[in-house]
């Protein structure tokens, strides 16, 4: 569904993403982990077509993002880390607008689809309120509605759990699992390792722009030569836990 | 723990931001500096010259002249007094209640007083810089024309700050009251409308007073009557009167202790009272300002119905609908249109009262020249409108642009929609202005046709240039469209637009004058002249099409290449 090969992104002289190769199969939820500033958001933005890679190739649903951006984007749903929306539109108007951008119209059952998703994400009672009066979590839910509105083949999500209440987080996890069972490929960056461990089929760890490791939790455990069951020690070991020692000393 | 630094410490972020901005130069900084600096210098010099000349002339009339200087000072300050109070109201709303960094400052252990003084200083500065920039050259000119002693300049530098503080403090007090009663987000809308009404009424007042009559030497007694009318028995209680008197007395090398005392003590008293009021009510007002009550807004169903019927692809239709709705729901946006309509009204009214037919000796030539002047004005209004409405169209997508950019929409459709939404209203306005004013003036039918056709083409070019350049030089991080319009790209747009308009006017005026010359003498056009006319008109058309086409293409390409 999503395939990156040797993707490079430089900001000036600084290489934020360094030859990243990654693939998400249909029906797979792929966790994308890494410390702050590792290059997760940058990679995801390149997949969404917001940043142009300096080198490498990105395929979405076997459409090359460079050669045929329209087809590639049509197969993709994108949920950014900080959802900025049009504050002067209502939730329903925004979803209609979003559907329109992806070529959906009323006769394609857009209205029903919108109602269905608003119901599902529990914001149906806010459908005719201006987005400016939404809380962060409500905006996040609205963005998810938008991302799934056009039934994309693949979805990229940047930190989906930030701002969601426990119920919302549960809902999103279940929803992702259900969608993946229907064959959707999902790439999800997150800092919540429990979530990654719980829902992800495979995990890639990125550090300073390079993929350090990729595989199932068991693979990673073997790689880190760790006996631990939890993902956190593995993650710390792989990304170098140097900082922690210093924290203990400073405190 | 509390910080102990005095209140200017809280102004440091502004200083740092400015320093970093100067250190880290951006493309076009120099050009912008040259253009804005040049305009600023020119305006100051013009103000200085006018003030100098008027004072010089007035002083020739001895007694009457002195009286006039004194009255004009008081009148000038009266106008500024109301302006300052109003801008104090508007500025304090954002500095004290809506500005984002307040979240940080309110959470920090700063004392209310320190916050108050730093914000009040900032409010005074932001509210008064235009007035000060206007007053400095004018007062300097008055002083130099009357050969004033240094005392005058000392007095001016003491009296002016006090004069600024008083109305701004009143404005802040009014804001404090308003915010404690209404939630701030609504207040801003109300204020905007109030400001608009204020500006429009000022324009209309000036228009109906017909100040051009003041230039008429015969009506000099009327001038004094005009000023006396402004002097009521309330005047001696106004700070504008005090500052006027202080300066006037200082012109004679004396100190008017009474009025100077009134001015400074009132300024201090107002600051103190305002501080006490803020001590009591600021926090409750601030907290209330954060409650965006469920705003009322128009649903605009009919627009939706209308746009649905348009023969566009769904993506384009969605974009169009979104733009129209966002525009209409944003008071700051359309309220400026109202202002423009008022200006247009004044413009047409001018032609209405001008009534050229009453002047018997006016020649056809003057009339034609007037028609071209008219066309130029309409084009300039068009350019001003485009730089404010169309140029920022791409930039105001701002932080929400990811929605469109990650959607399967090509940038071509996106920019074209921006173009059409900008073109339709501006085209209607420009055509109305041109046709009506030519009608009022009774211009030649050929001229009418040329003007109407020219403004049609120029609308396409100016809007296309604005949309294209706006896409090539976007400013996604700007807070408001005005900021976008005054960025490097906006200034460059204005420069190009002016060049374009002048080129077009020359290319049109030349063949038109050939035609009219022959027509009024009942001569037929020689083939040579006909060829010249056709060449000039075709050139004008080609230039117009190129100015429309090239920027649009460049804009689309820039959008396709851009990353945020
Ligand atoms: N627009 C930009 N210009 C310059 N550098 C950037 C830009 N965006 C990101 N970077 C740099 O690229 C690196 C990767 O940033 P990125 O946002 O991808 O990190 P991340 O993995 O998403 O981190 P986090 O977990 O904090 O969200 C960082 O070092 C950052 O400083
Ligand atoms: Mg990130």
Summarize this, please?
The complex is a heterodimer of chains A (251) and B (564). With 251 residues, chain A is of the alpha/beta class. Helix content of chain A is 39%, strand content 24%.
Number of helices of chain B: 20
Radius of gyration of chain A, whole Å = 19 Å
Helix share bin of chain A = 25-40%
- Helical residues, percent of chain B: over 70%
Largest interface: A-B, 36 and 31 residues
General shape of chain B = globular
Q: Class of the domain at 1-63 and 156-161 and 185-251 in chain A, according to the CATH hierarchy?
A: Alpha Beta
List the uncertain runs of chain A: none
- Main beta-sheet annotation of chain A: 6 strands, mixed
Task: Tell me the count of domains of chain B.
Answer: 2
- Which range does the strand content of chain B fall in? under 5%
Q: How large a portion of the residues of chain A is in β-strands, by DSSP E?
A: 15-25%
**End-to-end CA span of chain B:** 42 Å
Number of strands of chain A: 10
Count of strand segments of chain B: 0
Give a written overview of the molecule:
The complex is a heterodimer of chains A (about 250) and B (about 575). Chain A has about 250 residues and is an alpha/beta fold. Chain A has a domain of about 140 residues: 3-Layer(aba) Sandwich (Rossmann fold). Chain A has 10 helices and 10 strands. In chain A, strands 6-7-8-3-9-10 form a 6-stranded mixed β-sheet, sandwiched between helices. In chain A, strands 2-1-4-5 form a 4-stranded antiparallel β-sheet. In chain A, strand 4 and strand 5 form a beta hairpin. In chain A, helix 3 packs parallel to helix 5 and helix 4 packs antiparallel against helix 5. The mean pLDDT of chain A is about 85. With about 575 residues, chain B is an all-alpha fold. Chain B folds into 2 domains: about 280 residues, no CATH class; about 250 residues, no CATH class. Chain B has 20 helices and no strands. In chain B, helix 2 packs antiparallel against helix 3, helix 3 runs antiparallel to helix 7 and helix 3 crosses helix 9. Chain B is globular and about 80 Å long. Classes of the chains: A alpha/beta (about 250), B mainly alpha (about 575). Chains A and B meet through helix 2 and helix 3 of A and helix 12 and helix 15 of B. The structure holds adenosine-5'-triphosphate and magnesium ion. The site of magnesium ion has 4 residues of chain A, from helix 1.
């Amino acid at each position: 569904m999503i395939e990156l090969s040797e993707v490079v992104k430089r900001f000036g002289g600084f290489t934020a993403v360094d030859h990243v190769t990654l693939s998400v199969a249909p029906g797979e939820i792929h966790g994308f982990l890494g410390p702050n500033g590792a290059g997760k958001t940058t990679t995801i933005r390149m997949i969404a077509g917001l940043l142009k890679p300096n080198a490498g190739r990105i395929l979405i649903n076997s459409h090359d993002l460079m050669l045929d951006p329209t087809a590639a984007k049509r197969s993709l749903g994108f949920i950014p880390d900080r959802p900025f929306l049009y504050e002067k539109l209502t939730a329903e108007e925004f979803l209609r607008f979003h559907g329109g951008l992806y070529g959906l119209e009323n006769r394609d059952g857009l209205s029903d689809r919108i109602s269905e998703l608003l119901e599902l994400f529990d914001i149906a009672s806010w459908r005719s309120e201006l987005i400016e009066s939404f809380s962060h979590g409500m905006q996040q839910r609205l963005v998810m509605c938008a991302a799934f509105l056009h039934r994309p083949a693949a979805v990229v999500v940047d930190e989906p759990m930030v701002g969601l209440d426990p119920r919302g987080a549960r809902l999103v996890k279940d929803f992702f699992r259900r969608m993946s069972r229907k064959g959707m490929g999902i790439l999800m960056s997150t800092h919540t390792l429990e979530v990654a461990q719980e829902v992800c089929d495979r995990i890639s760890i990125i550090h300073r722009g390079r993929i350090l490791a990729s595989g199932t939790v068991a693979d990673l455990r073997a790689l880190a030569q760790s006996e631990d069951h939890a993902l956190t020690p593995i993650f710390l070991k792989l990304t170098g836990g140097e900082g922690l020692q210093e924290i203990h000393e400073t405190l | 723990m509390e910080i102990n630094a005095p209140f200017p410490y809280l102004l440091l972020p502004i200083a740092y931001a400015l320093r970093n901005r100067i250190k880290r130069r951006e493309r076009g900084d120099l050009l912008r500096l040259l253009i804005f600096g040049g305009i600023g210098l020119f305006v100051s010099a013009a103000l200085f010259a006018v003030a100098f000349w008027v004072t010089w002339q007035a002083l020739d009339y001895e007694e009457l002249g002195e009286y006039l200087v004194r009255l004009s000072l008081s009148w000038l300050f009266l106008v500024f007094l109301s302006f300052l109070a109003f801008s104090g109201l508007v500025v304090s709303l954002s500095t004290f209640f809506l500005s984002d960094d307040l979240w940080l400052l309110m959470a920090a252990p700063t004392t209310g007083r320190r916050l108050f003084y730093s914000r009040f200083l900032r409010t005074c500065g932001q509210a008064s810089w235009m007035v000060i920039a206007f007053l400095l050259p004018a007062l300097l000119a008055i002083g130099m024309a009357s050969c004033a002693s240094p005392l005058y300049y000392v007095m001016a530098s003491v009296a002016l700050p006090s004069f600024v503080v008083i109305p701004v403090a009143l404005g802040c007090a009014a804001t404090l009251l308003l915010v404690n009663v209404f939630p701030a987000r609504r207040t801003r809308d109300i204020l905007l409308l109030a400001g608009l009404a204020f500006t429009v009424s000022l324009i209309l007042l000036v228009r109906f007073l017909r100040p051009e009559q003041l230039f008429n030497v015969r009506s000099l007694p009327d001038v004094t009557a005009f000023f006396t009318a402004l002097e009521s028995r309330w005047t001696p209680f106004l700070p504008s009167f005090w500052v006027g008197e202080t300066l006037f007395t200082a012109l004679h090398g004396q100190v008017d202790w009474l009025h100077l005392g009134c001015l400074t003590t009132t300024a201090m008293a107002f600051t103190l009272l305002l501080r006490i009021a803020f001590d009591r009510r600021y926090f409750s007002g601030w907290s209330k300002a954060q409650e965006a009550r469920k705003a009322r807004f128009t649903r605009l169903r009919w627009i939706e119905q209308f746009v649905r019927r348009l023969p566009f692809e769904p993506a384009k239709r969605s974009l169009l609908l979104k733009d129209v709705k966002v525009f209409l729901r944003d008071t700051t946006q359309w309220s400026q249109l109202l202002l423009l309509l008022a200006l247009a009204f004044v413009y047409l009214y001018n032609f209405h009262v001008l009534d050229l037919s009453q002047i018997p000796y006016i020649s056809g030539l003057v009339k034609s020249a007037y028609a071209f002047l008219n066309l130029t004005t309409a084009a300039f209004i068009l350019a001003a409108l485009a730089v404010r409405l169309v140029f920022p169209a791409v930039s105001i997508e701002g932080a929400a642009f990811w929605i469109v950019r990650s959607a399967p929409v090509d940038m071509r459709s996106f920019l074209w929609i921006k173009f059409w939404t900008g073109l339709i209203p501006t085209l209607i306005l420009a055509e109305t202005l041109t046709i009506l004013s030519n009608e009022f003036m009774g211009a030649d039918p050929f001229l009418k046709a040329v003007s109407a056709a020219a403004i049609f083409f120029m609308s396409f070019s100016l809007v296309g240039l604005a949309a294209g350049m706006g896409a090539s030089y976007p400013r996604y991080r700007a807070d408001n469209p005005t900021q976008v319009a005054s960025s490097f790209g906006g200034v460059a747009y204005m420069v190009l637009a002016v060049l374009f308009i002048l080129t077009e006017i020359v290319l049109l005026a030349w063949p038109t004058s050939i035609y009219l010359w022959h027509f009024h003498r009942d001569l037929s056009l020689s083939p040579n002249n006909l060829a010249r006319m056709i060449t000039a008109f075709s050139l004008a058309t080609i230039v117009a099409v190129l100015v429309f086409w090239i920027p649009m293409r460049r804009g689309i390409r820039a959008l396709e290449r851009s990353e945020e």
